[in-house]
Specification:
Chain lengths: ~450, ~450
Amino acid sequence: MASIPILKEREKHIYRKGAEPFNLTCGHHSLAGVVSQRACVFCGSRVVLYPIADALHLIHGPVGCAAYTWDIRGALSSGPELHRLSFTTDLREKDVIFGGEKKLHRALVELIDTYQPRAAFVYSTCIVGIIGDDVAAVCRQVSREKAIPVLPVHSEGFKGTKKDGYKAACEALFKLVGQGPVDQISPWSINILGEFNIGGEAWIIKSYYEKMGVEVVATMTGDGRVDAIRRSHGAALNVVQCSGAMTTLADMMQARYGTPYIRVSYFGLEDTSKALYDVAAHFKDNPAIMARTQALVRGEISAIFPELQKIKAAVQGKRAAIYVGGAFKAFSLIKALRYLGMDVVLVGSQTGNDADYETLRDMCDDGTIILDDANPLELSKYIIEKRADLFIGGVKERPIAYKMGIGFCDHNHERKTPLAGYEGMLNFAREVYRSVNSPVWRFAPARAAAGKGASPC
Amino acid sequence: MLKPSPKAPKFTVTRNACKLCTPLGAALVFKGIRGAVPLLHGSQGCSTYIRRYLISHYREPIDIACSNFSEQTAIFGGGANLKIALDNIRRQYDPEMIGVATTCLSETIGDDVPMFIREYRESCAGEDLPPVVHVATPSYQGTHMQGFHAALQAVVDQLAQGAAEAGPHVNLFPGMVSPADLRHLREICADFDLPVVLLPDYADTLDGPLWTEYQRIPEGGTSVTAIRSSGSARASLELGDVLARAKETAAGLLWKRFEVPCHRMGLPVGIDATDRMFAALAEISGRPTPENHLRERGRLIDSYADGHKYVMDARAVVFGEEDLVVGLAGFLGEIGVVPVVCASGGRSGHLAACIAERFPDHSQKGIQVLSDADFVTIETAARDAQPDFLIGNSKGYSMARRLDKPLIRVGFPVHDRVGGARLLHLGYRGSQQLFDRIANTLMAARQTASPVGYTYI
């Protein structure tokens, strides 16, 4: 086959474990003309705030940004479902010429009157700053008129990367924190940060903490509620998941309210257990918590252990490629895949930083490809070269895998299956098994060629 | 004269949009050209969101590049980024064409994209530069359908050439139809022995088999050479009633510039509309309708007879792109179903007139037409209209679920089922599939509602 060319500018974003010196560039704006798998600032903000179910989410801009993010995520709510509606000012040409402030004001008033939300988030899209709308001023005015928090989210798509969107979302959230009553909050209490209740994951995690005797004040933002966020400064500890989507908020809460935080992951047996033990260890003044945690972990693992062993036998020795948004998730996935006896041959992320990639290098076996801000061509080149049997990623990576006859596991915000915690690990293992071991791959031309001893590429 | 109903109640906000943004339509057209790479001139999120949206429907790798604006780009203009993007696309993809579509951001800052492309061409003097086609697609103007048709016009405008003598071929502009529809149209033209320039033709690029070797640009599509020859075709066929009323279209341009005779007609859904298309092809080719299609027509009418009582006077809510809505409504009328609500997010201003033409008795039938409508508005109208079923894209699912009425999925997108690309709507064969699905849906509803549980209906 004609080999897939790698652009010179991109070479420094690709590292093959074992090569010296270790030199991987990251944290840059994506190269123009490259089909980056990244999205934009707006996407980052939308990801973080979306699951807050009793808030209004109004996207100020032309129709696209709202249309493409309407009810796309599997973030569940136990009550209101305002987050599943897509609201946009749907700016037209005359709004672009004459400004959209009046329309935004009208929009907010009618939405708040109709839906009675507990707060409103107003997301700025690309052109809002360019046409000069003073979104913050409109938000202040409506907030006064309607007596609810109306929070601007500075998420113009081009003003940075997805990470800047996380930050903008955290800044908006921080305006809610500290506004609610904190009496009657247990001294053994936490906030769950960076957990978005995809397929009910936050509920699973929350149930563990409750069984441990730890009160969960607010989940941010999975199954999120405005009032819970407002009193979240009363929690004794912030437990932050994910690669920094919400670390900004944890930092801000530490600075203003002195809330300490720890970083955790709930993917895989090892990391889930570590998360729970770390929280228990934090509350060492209450040894009963640790005792309950040990019992919980034992019970949960023994419940799923037999089936996991069966799956392990079926997938052992298969090769996996991982490409995810945040590198932190990749750490857990490597461990989870190794637990299943699989080898990781490629790992990459959209938004990893230097420290993340150093960790990845240390974790990976020799020869593993590490990629920053990859594109479909690079991903294809290396999954073929490394003869992966499984690809873990999102919607945009899925068809790349399938075309080459490679199994796939969805590990993004659009999936509907919980993959967190112990039962999540079992779901993950089942999904890996179902895809990797499907008989359909026998018919895939690339695999058939490989089966005859020829290289698949 | 049937007037579109006003948005009732008058709401400023678009809630759950029944439309997408213009660049999506343009990108789709470029995917239907052989060896073409679409390039969106704007923020990274535009291409990523649009890719995700398209991939979730077509389930194929869809690479759409982006010039990837940063804050500096927005201030100083996107010229430099666009040129880097063009360079990088050429180096990675070796394309036969690059289609540049603008976004709301680049349009709002006033980027002169034709000038940038001219400068780029000059800087590449002596190199083998593929055609670079530009289309203006600010998302605050119109919907994805405007983007789709604008891109077609731009492609024809910038590539078509005349010839001293008309060739044997015919141009076919099918509108935004499915890959299965495109394949069927190709087959029909082949049966008439008519060489066809089908534009766009993403039948293979967006619905192809698995690969033995990775394809940087999926095989298939109408070649640039073929598009160049569109100026010397013996005729053009342009499908879509609403499109036929547009001031400027691709086929209209070919008529004005090269005097290629232009046949305009609605989408061939149902007997009447398909007869019109076959009559036009018969006239152009000088051959009668081929026997196999006559037999398909015969079987379709036979099934109308078999099923007519199940569908007579059933009430349908039809929604989606304007031309699809008109095509479906005409077909429904033909079988005795009343399209009580005909709704679209489009706002060409022609939807009501097109429906009125199909249904001179629209007021007796109580047919309501909604233009520039969102799904909340459509749902309100649908609730009042007491339909038996809904027919449209999968974004109507939540509405159908609340109304507790079956949704027959057609058009784009179908995000909650497999096979969206394989849905056939056009010709006698497509109408047959639609008829069977509609009759079976109504029969199933009757069966389910019956306390008896008939096994024989």
